[in-house]
């Protein structure tokens, strides 16, 4: 379900992409991606997962808990994500950080239920460590650039290339994404040139005045020449 080049749009808890608006944005992303060869996935808030999954794009949860079914209250069960139509989950986003042992358990539980894992890590050394948990994707995201519009691929290119190098050393089958500040098609193109197989982005699309134009721009940057 998650192919590369991959563009993941994280809806975070932005009001612009909550509830009914989450579905509207997913529809625009779906139509903007059609025929481009770029896989576009979205990460809405948990209550919006099922309805957004109905749009037809691959849908990821923003967070999952490494639990088994049982008496747990207020947690997110991998099985529930699957049943809601998610294809996987982000893990350890810098806005929802986990301890390394929790990350490993999340990756394991997601794999058990047949869901993909996209593990975020703030810097290349942590990327190397989490790659040993055999997630499907590692996304390097320096937190200080998140939401700034200053793209990691442009202002810290060495972070992307180093993350790719270290992850591939551990396990060449783990795919590497990058995120933080990615705003334009050019930022995306640069990320792919550095060896990333896709990007994780949020504000440049979710908070854009013209969703369609913003979506077409970033998706265009991921198209193979
Ligand atoms: O999950 C994506 C993210 O943290 C990057 O956010 O707003 O810099 O694209 P943004």
Distance between the termini: 23 Å
Could you say which overall geometry the principal axes of the C-alpha atoms support?
globular
Low-confidence stretches: none
Give the % helix. 40-55%
Instruction: List cofactors, ions and other ligands.
Output: SN-glycerol-3-phosphate
Walkthrough of the structure:
This protein is an alpha/beta fold. 40% of the residues lie in helices and 16% in strands. The chain has an eight-stranded parallel sheet. Strand 3, helix 3 and strand 4 form a beta-alpha-beta unit. The chain starts with 5 loop residues before the first strand and ends with a helix. The site of SN-glycerol-3-phosphate (G3P) has 14 residues, from strand 8 and helix 9.
List the topology elements.
Blueprint: E1 6-10, H1 20-33, E2 39-43, H2 49-53, E3 60-61, H3 78-84, E4 88-91, H4 100-112, E5 116-121, H5 124-131, E6 137-140, H6 152-155, H7 157-170, E7 175-179, H8 185-193, E8 198-201, H9 203-206, H10 211-222
Parallel strand pairs: 1-2, 1-8, 3-4, 4-5, 5-6, 6-7, 7-8
Helix pairs in contact: 1-10, 5-7, 8-10
List keywords for this structure.
8 strands; 225 residues; 8-stranded parallel β-sheet; globular
Task: Provide a compact summary of the structure.
The chain has 225 residues and is α/β, with parallel strands linked by helices. It has helices at 20-33, 49-53, 78-84, 100-112, 124-131, 152-155, 157-170, 185-193, 203-206, 211-222, and strands at 6-10, 39-43, 60-61, 88-91, 116-121, 137-140, 175-179, 198-201.
